[in-house]
Amino acid sequence: MIAGAAGGPKWLILGHLDRMLFGSWFRGRRQPLYLLGSSIGSWRFAADSCADPIAAIDRMEEAYIHQVYDHRPTPREISRKSRSIIDYTLGADGPRDVLGHPFNRLSLVAVRSRHLIASEQRILLGLGLAAAVMANTLTRRSLRWFFRQTLFSDPRTPPPFASMGRWPGAGSALSPDNLNQALLASGSIPYVMDGVRHIAGAPTGIYRDGGAVDYHLDVPFGLNGRGIVLFPHFSRRIIPGWFDKHLSWRRPSVDNMADVLVVAPSEDFVSRLPNGKITDRTDFYRYAGDDEHRFACWQTVAEAGKILAEDFMETVTSGNISKRVQPFEKHAQSLKK
Questions:
Q1: Domain tally, the chain
Q2: Neighbouring C-beta atoms of residue 78, cutoff 10 Å
Q3: Tens of pLDDT along 86-129?
Q4: Is residue 288 one of the residues assigned to a domain?
Q5: Does the structure show a pLDDT above 80 at 332?
Q6: SS3 of residue 45 by DSSP
Q7: Of 6, 2, 13, 1, whose CA–CA distance to 264 is shortest?
Q8: Pick from 276, 265, 170, 269: which is nearest to 214 by CA?
């Protein structure tokens, strides 16, 4: 199983690792490989599941880096551009290829909006999000008042996590007719983008970014010691939900992480990237009115991802991985310090 977190432009640092994994390392696999993605993680895995994954990742990287918007883009404009990135990445045959892949089994998470968050009126939506922020500070369980988590899955082979009770809306099957809409919904950031309506085969409602609740996928994967969840990640920290980003005490369940192998860049590596960080949405403001420099920055970070891919491959093939893996509990303590 492989997990893919939400995180917008941060995905660029993982592009070459995805090329290596899906372009060569998994080639010839026979058993199902379950992919669980939230937001941009679901976009990555859709590209990874195309007939030619490297070409699809190339298309996604090209289109994603070269996004251009008005000075103050509307949610509709951002949604339209996002849909065009998905369509360009997958192409006409992509949805059928993804859902007919020999071994990849894609699942993605979105949320169905409730109460004020089901409104597209900016004031009401803003009030709903503010209430969600405050309620989440007390307990993550309160998010069920605002969002109904929904799991969209390849119907050929039910994934182990579908039966773990984590997604009350589980059971929405992916199809060539709804894949692109489901991907858009999974990445539709509340207030920044429009919600997505009318997803074929899914319950009626307004769907938004799955990362609102499942940001870095602190979920029971259902393997119970029978395998590994490989988690190529852009951060040493796993943040359960989008509203937890500034809550330093909010950490993932140790039980949920029991079968998870996180692969993430070191702090030293990140410090040598442009601006000393991995690409993120703040770059749209940093380079406002200077798209060419943002393109160059994002391309540089994407190319730096080759180092991560090569290091991972060398570590695995040489056997040195046994010397570099750190128990998650020990890692969590180091972050706490």
A1: 1
A2: 17
A3: 999 999 999 999 999 999 999 999 999 999 999 999 999 999 99
A4: yes
A5: no
A6: helix
A7: 13
A8: 170
pLDDT digits (tens, 9 = 90+) for 242-272: 999 999 999 999 899 999 999 999 999 999 9
Domain with 175, as residue range(s), is 2-111+148-336
In a domain, 91, yes or no: yes
Q: Is 68 exposed, middle or buried (0-12, 13-18, 19+ CB in 10 A)?
A: exposed
Residues whose CB is less than 8 angstroms from the CB of residue 268 and which lie 6 or more positions away in sequence, other chains included: none
Tens of pLDDT, residues 142-162 = 999 999 999 999 999 989 998
Q: Is residue 213 part of a domain?
A: yes
Q: What's the Cα-to-Cα distance from 24 to each of 27, 29, 183, 253, 260, rounded to whole Å? A: 5, 10, 25, 33, 22
Indicate the residue type of 297. Answer: C
Q: Tell me whether residue 315 is in a domain.
A: yes
Sign for the pseudo-dihedral over CA of 157, 160, 161, 163: positive
Mean pLDDT for the chain overall: 93
- Determine contact, residues 78/193, Cβ cutoff 8 Å: yes
